[in-house]
User: Fold Signal peptidase I from Microbacterium candidum.
Amino acid sequence: MTTENSAGSAAHPATGSTSTASRRRGWVSLLRDIVVIVAVAILVSLVVKTFLVRSFYIPSASMEDTLQVQDRILVDEITPRFSPYQKGDVVVFRDPGGWLPPSTAPARPFVVEAGDWLLSLVGLSAPDSDDHLIKRVIGVAGDHVVCCNAVGQITVNGTPIDETSYVKVQPGKSVPTPVPFDVVVPANSLWVLGDNRDRSQDSRYHMAEPGKGFVPLDNVVGRAFVITWPFNRFGLIDFHHEVFASVPAPSKTPSP
Assistant:
């Protein structure tokens, strides 16, 4: 009896130790799996953001009424790699130089920056939106773009453009205030204007700068194609390609 009790007492610690070690291995395995899943998710999201789709928010009224302040949008980065930008496309691009005022915002804590970056990987934040602009393409390489004819219309390659379907006109006006220009878009560049012409600092206002108001294709992130927030505005962004359907091709090859 005593021997049996002793043997039984000796067996319990071994069983408890084995059970504890098994649970510990289970937790370690679970934590390892979670770390792997999170790492893979971040990697996939980073690849998507870098090469496929990026999220941005709209900080100004320059593209009203197509886009409203604080709208969140997705930008297609992959399609332009296989097909050229077209007149009417709404594009996001990095500041070509001097288009945006120097930032006066105080530096944010590293933890906040890191948090925004992580959220941006899944489209919940857009920390670099303040360093980019969004406008509509009015001219591509070789196009001769002029403002304005007798009724206030822009012409592209000699063809008047009826932009009433997307250009915002301020109360009391029939057309936006004309800002004269006469340009031929060089190779690998775009001429861009905001839909809210009277509230947009676009190509027209940078003709005196080294870039002459043109946006290099290397600065273009991609085409904005959908509004994702707020939910009541969810939907595709209209490029209004039909507005430019009658525009003839440029008469000559553009110079760089």
Q: What stands out?
A: The mean pLDDT is 81. Helices lie at 2-51, 110-121. Residues 1-51 form one domain.
